[in-house]
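INTERNAL AUDIT FORM
Audit reference: QA-55
Scope: verify that the stored structure record matches its stored sequence.
Auditor: D.O.
Record contents follow.
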Amino acid sequence: MNDALYDIPLQQIDGTATNLRPHQGKVMLIVNVASKCGLTPQYAGLEALHERYTERGFTVLGFPANDFAGQEPGSNAEIASFCTSNFGIRFPLYSKIVVTGEARHPLYSHLIAAHPDTEARAVMEEQLRGYGIEPTPRPEVLWNFEKILVDRNGQVVRRFAPDTKPDAEALITTIEGLL
């Protein structure tokens, strides 16, 4: 059991202090989310994934971050309202954090150290360069909606590139295997 992961201080989107202990023993899909990104429609797929597997011990956890092109400029209250009204989000959302660089939140420092490689990263790196955006260096989170899958014991098992859709076969197969 990777207890260190569960004890990292966090805040729920409403500012309430918490950590990941309420999710201990569950398979977690941790996603850095943003409301003004081309990938924002993934919220719908993430909610569907959460609903599909929640009774089997799975949860999606959303961590808003404004690290990429200012695509999450809102306050926590604005983010919560956006997610509820536009996508009916019921999976847990946390307060906005930093997921890259020197100011990176300890949660993401832990996750990245545990699993430095993001699958299919090169394809999205090229897409970003096509838009004139220089990708973050490895092992940093590449962009909004990178997906980090954690097993029931708190071990990071896979990192999926941001453009991996929530219903992608590789993601679904891995989740089902962990459940």
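Auditor finding: record pair retrieved intact. The two ends are 16 Å apart (CA to CA).
Action required: none
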